[in-house]
Specification:
Length: about 140
């Protein structure tokens, strides 16, 4: 997912959806900053119980290219100078591919996988753990 998977976070607020997790990928900023942004978003949206795991540091075919001139130093800076509230949310420990596989396979129904940015974690997931495909109903890509 990209710098801040806001579309997915908003989906987590919809009464007919259940957000079971978020994975991050470095891109417009470092993986550490992108993951922090995702955790901040989950916190302010009241989705504190949704797990977030740090995925690949960069895309499969390229390195990250931070764009602080566009996205600011955090990767999600705003012109109004918003300061995120303090919270204690931490990313889930472990390799994203295996955390994602375990989470998807544990679901009682097939899941809808949504990518809002780089497809790296999904590509790795399907390559390393192809058995998850039986529990994926659909993959949607926002791009």
């Amino acid at each position: 997912m990209g710098s801040f998977p806001c579309a997915v976070n908003f989906a987590g607020l919809h009464e007919k959806s259940k957000l079971i997790g978020i994975s991050t990928v470095g891109g417009n900023q470092t993986l550490e900053k992108v993951t922090k942004n995702a955790l901040n978003g989950l916190y302010v949206m009241g989705l504190k119980d949704v797990p977030c795991v740090a995925g690949s540091e960069h895309a499969l075919m390229s390195m990250i290219v931070p764009c602080p001139e566009i996205h600011g130093d955090s990767g999600l800076d705003t012109k109004i100078g918003y300061v995120w509230p303090q919270h204690g949310l931490e990313p889930v420990k472990g390799k994203a591919v295996f955390v994602m596989a375990e989470t998807i396979l544990a679901q009682p129904k097939r899941v809808h996988l949504i990518a809002t940015g780089r497809l790296t974690n999904i590509a790795l997931l399907l390559s390393v753990c192809p058995e998850v495909m039986r529990n994926i109903k659909q993959i949607s890509i926002m791009g």
